[in-house]
Design a protein that fits this description.
Layout: E1 3-6, H1 14-23, E2 27-30, E3 37-38, E4 41-42, E5 50-54, H2 57-60, H3 78-92, E6 97-102, H4 107-119, H5 126-140, H6 143-151, E7 159-163, H7 164-169, H8 171-181, H9 200-226
Parallel strand pairs: 1-5, 1-6, 2-5, 6-7
Antiparallel strand pairs: 3-4
């Protein structure tokens, strides 16, 4: 059975696909590398199931400071990161298939990205966030550049590019295509919503709440330092 590296993009149905693969009887799905990698080598060759390694951060990772505020690092070199990740995956298994899910630029996509920012503790208001992050996001979500990057290492016939809009408009056809591509039998999850965005009202309120929490945590840490 073949192996599949699902490399994203972020905000393009990754959470649902991961839940589907995790529940599918014909798939071994991993987000954690440790169970399948030993000394930098792929350990699952010959598995009777489709082995899926799925993480949207393989392609569209955006670095944050390691604290509550989740303030982004605009100096992070996303292109160097994407190339290093590509080289790592190729070294793991140069025969794997690559799956890239694209999503057309839209206001809805921007709101979805910002929603993830505030849900995870982000303090920045909408306008400030995108003024700072737009150059980074353009590089992180440049799927044409990501495709070309993987094409340098993997054969074109091993790189599958599918639009999120197809999954949104006709999920049955989308999943059936994946099943036929990898010789999987039919399986569907019960209908459910996953990783939903916050409402417009919550987008307005969350950054302010996060700033209050962040100031409180910094205050308590400062007080604890005097004890």
């Amino acid at each position: 059975m073949r192996s599949l590296f699902h490399i994203g993009l972020a905000k393009a149905g990754s959470t649902y696909l991961q839940k589907w693969w995790e529940a599918h009887p014909g798939v071994l799905m991993y987000q954690n590398l440790f169970p399948i990698v030993k000394r930098g080598k792929w350990q699952l060759e010959g598995s009777p199931k489709l082995t899926v390694l799925s993480d949207e951060r393989f392609s569209s990772y955006i670095k944050h400071e390691a604290n509550w505020s989740k303030r982004v690092d605009p100096t992070f070199d996303i292109q160097a990161y994407q190339q290093t990740t590509r080289d790592f995956l190729f070294a793991l298994n140069p025969h794997a298939d690559i799956l890239l899910i694209t999503r057309a630029p839209s206001v809805k996509l921007l709101k979805s990205i910002y929603s993830q920012h505030v849900k995870t503790g982000g303090e920045m208001d909408f306008d400030d966030f995108f003024e700072l992050m737009m150059p980074v996001l353009k590089r992180a979500f440049d799927y044409a550049a990501i495709y070309d990057l993987y094409l340098e290492k993997f054969p074109a016939e091993k790189i599958i590019v599918l639009p999120l809009e197809w999954m949104s408009d006709d999920q049955e056809a989308f999943l059936t295509f994946l099943e036929k591509s990898f010789g999987l039998r039919h399986y569907r999850l019960p209908p459910s919503k996953v990783n939903t965005s916050v409402s417009d009202e919550e987008m307005f309120a969350y950054p302010r709440l996060n700033r209050i929490v962040s100031k409180y945590l910094k205050f308590t840490q400062k007080i604890a330092g005097y004890r």
